[in-house]
Design a protein that fits this description.
Elements: E1 2-9, H1 12-23, E2 30-37, E3 40-42, E4 46-48, E5 50-57, H2 64-96, H3 104-125, E6 130-137, E7 140-146, H4 150-154, H5 159-171, E8 176-181, H6 184-205, E9 210-211, H7 217-227, E10 233-238, E11 245-250
Parallel strand pairs: 7-8
Antiparallel strand pairs: 1-5, 2-5, 3-4, 6-7, 9-11, 10-11
Helix pairs in contact: 6-7
Length: 252
């Protein structure tokens, strides 16, 4: 007699393990596994468990050798996929490193390449967003994202968006790319200016340096501009990207 149970987990293997524990069954008694909703994970910043429907038949007694054989087959398949993916990435990196000359055709090619890479990253993450790429000047480009998952890609205080922007720039080293989501950066700029004023006032009231949380270069620039309006204060950055942060202190 078969029993069907729904399990939430980050992977099929994790779902099976949980189901076996609940049903007090063995791996040989798993009859069918259906993935009803895919799990999602991005840079360790957010996780969304998938939903798996698992059918267990306690009357099944498959041979242990057959089970081990299937497991070995799966492991071999996964290893081949990893090797294939590694070779593809190496090939893409070599292509990206080729020198890009300033011409109308090549600028168009660059725009298409950045758009394709952004779409590829979003697809791998599992987010539904449209991508629009605009050239600002020279090798500077703006990537605008639109869609139902805009809240997920922004993350808390723009942290996930900054990570996505950092990853895209790492993959497309020939260009300087800024990523925005439906005007979020403009709103974030105003928030940062208010933060800069607040931290400036704090620094004026204390003799100790004030250290801010790590920020990307664009956000640090905004804070520096605000603090520069206070003649009694000095500001500088410490650490390395993506964990570089601003220090505010009184001038000697």
């Amino acid at each position: 007699m078969s029993n069907v149970i729904e399990i939430k987990a980050m992977s099929q293997e994790q779902a099976i393990t949980r189901a076996l524990k609940i049903m007090e069954a063995t791996p040989e008694q798993v009859k069918k596994v259906v993935e009803k909703q895919k799990s999602r994970s991005f840079l360790g910043l957010f996780n969304r468990e998938g939903i798996y429907e698992i059918e267990i038949d306690k009357s099944l007694k498959a041979e242990v050798k057959e089970v081990k054989k299937e497991v070995k087959k799966t492991e071999t398949k996964v290893e081949k996929e990893i090797v294939k993916e590694t070779e593809t990435k190496k090939k893409q990196d070599v292509e990206v490193k080729s020198e890009v000359k300033e011409s109308k055709k090549e600028r168009k090619d660059a725009t298409n390449m950045i758009k394709a890479k952004a779409e590829e990253l979003l697809e791998n993450i599992g987010l539904v967003l449209d991508v629009e790429v605009d050239r600002i000047n020279d090798r500077n480009y703006l990537v605008n994202l639109y869609g139902e998952d805009n809240g997920i890609i922004i993350g808390k205080k723009g942290k996930t968006l900054n990570s996505f922007e950092y990853l895209l720039n790492t993959l497309m080293k020939e260009y300087r790319i800024e990523v925005d989501v439906e005007g979020f950066k403009a709103k974030r700029t105003e928030t940062l200016r208010e933060l800069g004023k607040k931290m400036a006032e704090k620094a004026l009231k204390t003799t100790k340096p004030v250290r801010l949380n790590p920020m990307p270069p664009r956000e640090r620039k905004i804070i520096h501009e605000v603090i520069n309006k206070y003649p009694e204060l000095d500001t500088y950055s410490e650490g390395r990207d993506p964990k570089r942060y601003i220090v505010i202190k009184r001038k000697k």
